[in-house]
């Protein structure tokens, strides 16, 4: 099935005749994946505009009719991050067996149905179930869209396209914050389902990734997918690229049993997993799990407009991601990540110091704007590094035979870290205040910064094979 037969028995299609032309199709496929990623990222900030609604005493505002308790808020905030318990055993296998495209369709359907159920069924336990389902869908989205984005692009363009793909994150945050600021509960949740519905419509015309097709033994379709996704005038390059894909797929087929054991026994893959966990933990523990869900509530407590600050955060994040997309090939993902971590660490420590002084009534309330500055500086640093390169680096570290499993394990571990921090934050805040959590984020990420600086290889512009060679050389 996976024999490497040179592709010389077929005549070049007419698209190879003449000069190289712009390939719009790869942008269309990326655009479709971006819509699904927007749907997934909305679920990450869903609770932020909902806190004030669900804690309202006004039954015309709160669909539950009465304010939810602190423990109920903790459960509703964190329940979607329990999803790895359901998805970890299956997500990699489903992605490989049914393909990236079908997996994305599945997650889009789950997302749309869950939001529509929340919109029309006012029950706390139904909300929790639907939030868990959106969490499951979010896991499939994070894994499949990131892998899809990497697998449809060639190595020289992977960095730029990967960051175009991550622009969906700030767009999703901005979309959620804007509709959350102005829409009532039911309309908000209906609008949350819209990006997933758009993705389902666009999916009718996208191709699965060449790697996913090769994994299913569809060699001819993999070649056709490459023809659609690559610029014209690259026929010889297509033959080489398909041969490389088939080699990796053959290796995956030979090592399909006991994948986790094989991943760990392979020195380069083991190092990729450990570095992938560090990269994921760096992003989850940088403070973003405070800024996105709880910053609006925090600023409201300081008598500042939380929704306005959140919209500013999303705008800054969008332009930060866009800026990174323009410079990533020149600067490199590793440098962007390191500079981002430094800014995030300093911002969290500074914000923690301010909130500590505020809690002790040492500083005047006239200086509350300093907290906004700290958060906006944090988001500037986050959006120009950690937020936009984490998934791209993660997908590039693993070889094809372990990519779905490796990315799933790293993403799962990161989601569990998010669950713990999101569940604990309302309880810790009620007992001790916000500042101990922010100091913890700053200190733990300082440790991750040292590991990233000395151990993480630069992946920008390198093929998957070259990255594996770098990992093997630096054991």
From TrEMBL:
UniProt keyword Membrane, yes or no: yes
Compartments reported by the entry: Cell membrane
Domain of life according to the entry: Eukaryota
Pfam assignment, any one: Sugar_tr
Keyword line: Cell membrane, Membrane, Sugar transport, Transmembrane, Transmembrane helix, Transport
Membrane disposition: Multi-pass membrane protein
GO molecular function, one term: transmembrane transporter activity
Main location (coarse class): membrane
Record-linked PROSITE patterns: SUGAR_TRANSPORT_1
Residues that span the membrane, as ranges: 25-47, 106-128, 161-185, 197-215, 272-296, 308-329, 336-357, 369-393, 405-425, 437-456
GO cellular component: plasma membrane
SUPFAM superfamilies with a match to the protein in the record: MFS general substrate transporter (SSF103473)
Protein name: Major facilitator superfamily (MFS) profile domain-containing protein
Organism of this sequence: Phyllotreta striolata (Striped flea beetle)
């Amino acid at each position: 099935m996976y024999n490497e037969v040179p592709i010389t028995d077929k005549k070049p299609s007419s698209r190879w005749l003449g000069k190289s032309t712009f390939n719009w199709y790869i942008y269309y496929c990326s655009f479709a994946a971006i819509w699904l990623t927007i749907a997934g990222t909305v679920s990450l900030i869903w609770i932020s505009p909902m806190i004030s609604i669900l804690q309202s005493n006004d039954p015309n505002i709160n669909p539950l009719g009465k304010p939810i308790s602190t423990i109920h808020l903790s459960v509703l905030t964190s329940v979607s991050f329990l999803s790895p318990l359901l998805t970890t055993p299956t997500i990699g296998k489903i992605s490989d067996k049914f393909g990236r495209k079908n997996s994305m369709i599945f997650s889009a359907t789950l997302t749309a149905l869950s939001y529509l159920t929340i919109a029309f069924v006012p029950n706390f336990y139904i909300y929790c179930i639907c939030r868990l389902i959106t969490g499951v869908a979010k896991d499939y989205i994070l894994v499949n869209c990131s892998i899809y984005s990497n697998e449809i692009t060639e190595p020289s363009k992977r960095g730029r396209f990967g960051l175009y793909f991550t622009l969906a994150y700030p767009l999703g945050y901005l979309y959620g914050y804007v509709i959350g600021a102005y829409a009532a509960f039911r309309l908000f949740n209906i609008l949350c389902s819209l990006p997933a519905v758009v993705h389902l419509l666009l999916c009718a015309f996208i191709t699965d990734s060449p790697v996913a097709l090769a994994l299913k033994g569809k060699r001819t379709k993999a070649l056709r997918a490459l023809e659609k996704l690559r610029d014209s005038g690259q026929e010889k390059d297509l033959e080489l690229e398909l041969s490389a894909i088939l080699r990796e797929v053959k290796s995956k087929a030979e090592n399909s049993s006991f994948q986790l054991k094989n991943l760990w026994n392979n020195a380069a893959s083991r190092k990729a997993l450990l570095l992938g966990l560090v990269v994921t933990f760096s992003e989850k523990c940088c403070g973003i799990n405070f800024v996105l869900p709880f910053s609006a509530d925090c600023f409201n407590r300081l008598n500042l407009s939380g929704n306005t600050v959140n919209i500013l955060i999303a705008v800054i994040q969008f332009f930060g991601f866009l800026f990174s997309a323009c410079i990533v090939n020149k600067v490199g993902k590793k440098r962007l990540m390191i500079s981002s971590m430094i800014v995030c660490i300093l911002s969290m420590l500074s914000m923690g110091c301010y909130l500590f002084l505020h809690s002790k009534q040492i500083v005047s309330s006239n200086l509350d704007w300093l907290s906004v500055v700290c958060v906006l500086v944090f988001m500037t640093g986050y959006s120009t590094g950690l937020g936009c390169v984490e998934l791209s680096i993660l997908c590039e570290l693993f070889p094809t035979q372990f990519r779905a499993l490796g990315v799933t394990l790293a993403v799962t571990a990161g989601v569990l870290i998010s669950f713990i921090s999101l569940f604990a934050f309302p309880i810790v805040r009620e007992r001790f205040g916000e500042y101990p959590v922010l100091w913890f984020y700053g200190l733990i990420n300082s440790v991750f910064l040292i590991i990233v600086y000395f151990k993480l290889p630069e992946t920008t512009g390198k093929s998957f094979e070259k990255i594996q060679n770098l990992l093997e050389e630096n054991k």
